[in-house]
Amino acid sequence: MSITHVPDEELLVFDHEIAAPVEDVFGAYLDPELLVRWYGPAGWHVRPTDVVVEPVVGGMQRLSMINEVDPSVSCILQSRFLSIEPFKELEYAEQLPDHLGNPGSVLVYQRHRFFPETVITADGVGSGTRIVIEIGPMPASVHEEVRTTWRSTFARLDDVLATHAHGEL
Asked: Does the global pTM surpass 0.85?
């Protein structure tokens, strides 16, 4: 299965603009050192020693997210890449964590597409990237929560790539 087979009512689609080149945005998804710095919503961080990224079709992406308020709360996110088109698209199947935070039996599919575009930047208007995200299947009742979580995550990516652009990595 893939994202193309998810029923419309169970598919969440939204976009995000980043004032960074497509190459940098796409690369941040596959570079373990950058992924640790941005992945996850506010209040969570990725344990650097647990990150696995195998950027080939069929390869794994696995990371542990730790709650910053209560470090005893964690979850493992595990995915398999279904499609990789450099600088254009990443699609993967993700095992949602079970009640203990381990990879569970429920799969959701995600496709992230990357488009070079003119975007609003800190200095006005400039070059950047629009990411279109498709996630499903999931009930419509959780779409807003998932969108909010991703917005928080992308705020971190914005900061990491802004730092990267200024050579402060």
From this structure: yes
* CA–CA dist 42, 20 (Å, integer): 21
Looking at residue 94, the DSSP 8-state letter turns out to be: E
Q: CB-based burial of residue 58 (10 Å sphere; 0-12 exposed, 13-18 middle, 19+ buried)?
A: exposed
CA 143 – CA 153 distance, rounded (Å)? 15
Pairing of strands 124-136, 103-121: antiparallel
Q: φ, ψ for residue 60 (rounded to 5)?
A: -100, 150
- Provide the b/e sequence for 106-120 (b: ≥16 CB within 10 Å): eebbbbbebeeeebe
Give the confidence band of 168 by pLDDT, cuts at 50, 70, 90. Answer: low
